[in-house]
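I am writing to request your help with a piece of structural work I have in hand. I set the record out below, with my sincere thanks for your time.
___
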Amino acid sequence: MQPNFIAMTVRTRFAPSPTGYMHIGNLRTALYAYLFAKSQNGKFVLRIEDTDQKRYVEDATRVIYETLETANIHHDEGPDVGGDYGPYVQSERKAIYKEYAMKLVEKGAAYYCFCAKTEEDATEDEEPKENPFESTCHCRDLSAEEVQKNLAEGKSYVIRQKVPHEGTTTFNDLVYGEITVENETLDDQILLKSDGMPTYNFANVVDDYLMGITHIIRGSEYLSSNPKYILLYQAFGWEVPCYIHLPLINGKNPDGTVSKLSKRHGAVSFQALVEDGYLPEAIINYIALLGWSPKNEREIFTMDELCEVFSVAGLHKSPAVFDYQKLDWVNAQHIQAMPFEKFSEIAFEFSGVKGTFLEPKWNKLATLMQPRINKFTEIPEKLKFLYEVAPYEVELYINKKNKSTLESSVEILKITIDAVNQIDHWDEETLSEAFGKVAADHNIKYGPLMWPSRIAMSGLLATPGGSTDIMYLIGKEETLKRLQKGIEYIQSKLG
């Protein structure tokens, strides 16, 4: 049963690091945080977590904005739209973290650490890494006098969390349930680096509290770090927010096994998928299903529909597997549901027909393409035969269902050439009527009549559209040329 959040104004956040493209896993986190907030009439906040300046990528913040905009995920507060809890960029909040780190030191929940270490050792990013230093540092037990002496001498320091050595820390996750960890297994993580910048693990706690975040939605890789976050909340005397940890997203390996989704599995960024011909709304629809299920078996949703039906109760514990075949299917459903004008406009940009003989007949091509593609990048390959017929096996003319043989195909192709020569007005309706009449005059069913011509004009078993569609598209002269070549091809085989 989904918890009742009516008593509070739900506030969720998405806090990406500006380190490059938007990975599918990050986008899913943003999507779920957005859907949950909207399903509860709450607020969705965007915060840029750029504490790790060494991994900062120029222009990456713009990519974040553009990705969210294209994905139709709109934040209520953030660096670009403002809000009551700014600034929303962590590098602009440096003084705030210093203030709160000092409060922890005063409370005895953190301490100065003067141990020699490199700045790189103290770096944190979105995915917490195992601390390379021993859990218990001798600086933990320095006297106040020793600390002041070191500070007076100008020694470099970091601020570490003072984790209790005894007892346990328990928290409740809305997906994984109650989790208890022995405190002795936790390390004294660095909170404030020697340059005064906070680590991710400290900054996110301070910011989530100060920004009034009620529900923290993130990947399950953070479960192991969560007890240290809980201890920080408790040390400050703050109310602990609700946690929703999401299952991992795996990719399929060539040998059938699965592993954490990465570039070796194919396009794993939102931008790359869009460039590969997937609709943004279809990508979002599919990503929503990676770790969440609606109450029924429905799989195709618009963003507004997802906001209406999303529920924490539908989230899974087990890892999801990114399946490109399923994504293709979801994308195809969205393509087929598009208004034709919108489909035609997008498809034209992918088609490659601009400036070719096919451009004037694009509307016809678009009509043929819309029900037949899974993604837009398939279009050029599907149209390739219209420019030139590739070498093909003559046995394609043999078709049991249409009672087509090599010998019968030659005769039917001759009949087809004769009919084409008599057609003066080259349009779809005239071609359809003409070959309907040919079938009736020769007492041949339409399918067996058109099979040989479609093979001759395409060299393919399956084509977008039938024979008369192809004839219309390539024109009368090219039609006659391909039909005659088909006869010659068969006859050379027959000898």
